[in-house]
Write a structure and sequence with these properties.
CATH topology of the largest domain: Aminopeptidase
CATH class of the largest domain: Alpha Beta
CATH architecture of the largest domain: 3-Layer(aba) Sandwich
Structural class: alpha/beta
Distance between the termini: 56 Å
Number of domains: 2
Strand content: 25-35%
Length: 407
């Protein structure tokens, strides 16, 4: 009888221990479950069904954590709704994607023509090759190279970005950017030999792009608050939308963001908290821009702004930055000591959506941002996540937030 009782006691202790681990917001198991849930919604591009489903789910999880949760509707002026794209060359059919923004008239495109090696390209394709610069945003140097191609008067441009994955890689864009005068079609660098052969032989290639523009596209941020009447705020933010499924680009940041919400009731008790999960990151930071003027607490009342950026716990990381304002640099240096990455402070640290935070006058911010081998490519999946990096990353955020409330 005693042995049975002892066995039951040990079993109950094991079960309790397992339950405690499962309930730990910073556990690898919990964070991986959140990442896989995010992935299950599929494509997360702004305005898509997958993006809406992810936002709905995040709102539900914030509510379960005991926060007062609401939706913050906003619109972005335009979105290109891509239907599909193919390129036939050398007897093969390749999947292709336009680099935003497609011409608005027409938004769909079909052409069978040769590649013009040089000079006038009227009625034909021109080619542009860009080195991969480890950046995430289409910039002036990229546009200058494309302008050189447009000056040749092509019917379309085939753009190859030399990404280390060998896959299609696309850049983030701004709403204010002009649409291209002709379609710019992204082709994976692994297919460069096929394009080279077609160009040499004068073989015609065929491109089909389907899609349409929508105007004043609606979405929303998810905003959650825990107001303790302390009159000093912690802000925690993360983007939700992305070009593709983008599991490791977005998933670890969202998992860390939710972990902070689940810790909020028992930790960070000396501050009021506001969480914001933003939409529209990849086409102009629309959600963060909207929140900055309609919901963000004043800079003078904000003791720390924590931002969970891209690719925070991925395999094959290409570049990683740990970012902080000058005022929070000592706390970040201490709490992120075990996290690999380039340390950036001050203006240099205002990357991604932290650019809006810094520009609005918040002098106490920190966060992380990175790129991995499949960042901004269609192959970014749960397989690209490194589970061993999740808990240390989230703990570093939590400890920095805790320390900020004690200053």
């Amino acid at each position: 009888m005693k042995s049975v009782t002892l066995f039951a006691l040990v079993a109950s202790m094991v079960l309790a221990s397992n339950a405690a681990r499962a309930a730990d917001p910073l556990s690898t198991e919990q964070m991986m479950a959140d990442i896989q849930r995010y992935e299950s919604f599929g494509l997360h591009r702004y305005g898509s069904g997958g993006a809406k489903a992810a936002l709905d789910w995040i709102g539900s999880e914030l509510g379960k954590a005991g926060l007062k949760t609401s939706s913050q509707p906003f619109t972005m002026r335009r979105q290109y709704n891509f239907g599909g794209g193919s390129l036939d060359v050398g007897g093969k059919r390749l999947t292709v994607l336009p680099q935003w923004w497609m011409p608005e008239h027409p938004a769909q495109f079909s052409l069978s023509a040769a590649i013009a090696p040089s000079g006038d390209a009227s009625g034909r394709f021109a080619r542009v090759n860009l080195p991969f610069d480890r950046g995430a945003y289409l910039n002036d140097s990229h546009r200058a190279k494309l302008e050189e191609a447009f000056a040749r008067h092509p019917a379309a441009v085939l753009l190859v970005i030399d990404h280390p994955s060998g896959e299609i890689f696309t850049y983030n864009v701004e709403q204010r950017s002009k649409s291209w005068p002709v379609p710019v079609i992204l082709v994976a660098p692994k297919y460069r030999p096929l394009l080279d052969a077609a160009e040499r032989s004068g073989e015609k290639i065929a491109v089909e792009i389907s899609g349409r523009y929508t105007q004043d596209v609606e979405s929303y941020n998810v905003v959650a608050r825990l107001d303790r009447n302390k009159d000093k705020w912690l802000v925690i933010s993360t983007p939700v939308t992305s070009w593709f499924t983008s599991t490791c680009e977005r998933g670890p940041g969202i998992a860390g963001f939710l972990a902070m919400a689940r810790l909020a009731a028992e930790r960070f008790t000396e501050a009021d908290l506001i969480f914001v999960a933003t939409a529209g990151h990849e086409i102009g930071h629309g959600g963060m821009g909207y929140f900055m003027t309609r919901g963000a607490p004043p800079p003078r009342d904000t003791i720390a702004w924590a931002h969970f950026g891209s690719s925070l716990a991925c395999r094959d990381t290409l570049v990683k930055a740990i970012n902080s304002s000058e005022s929070l640099a000592p706390l970040v240096t201490k709490n992120f000591a075990g996290i690999e990455g380039t340390r950036l402070t001050g203006e240099k640290a205002a990357v991604g959506e932290l650019r809006e935070v810094n520009a609005a006058g918040y002098t106490a911010f920190f966060g992380m941002a990175a790129a991995h081998k499949y960042f901004h490519t269609p192959l970014d999946s749960a397989a690209t996540v490194d589970p061993a990096l999740l808990s240390p990353m989230a703990k570093a955020f939590a400890d920095t937030l805790s320390d900020a409330t004690k200053r």
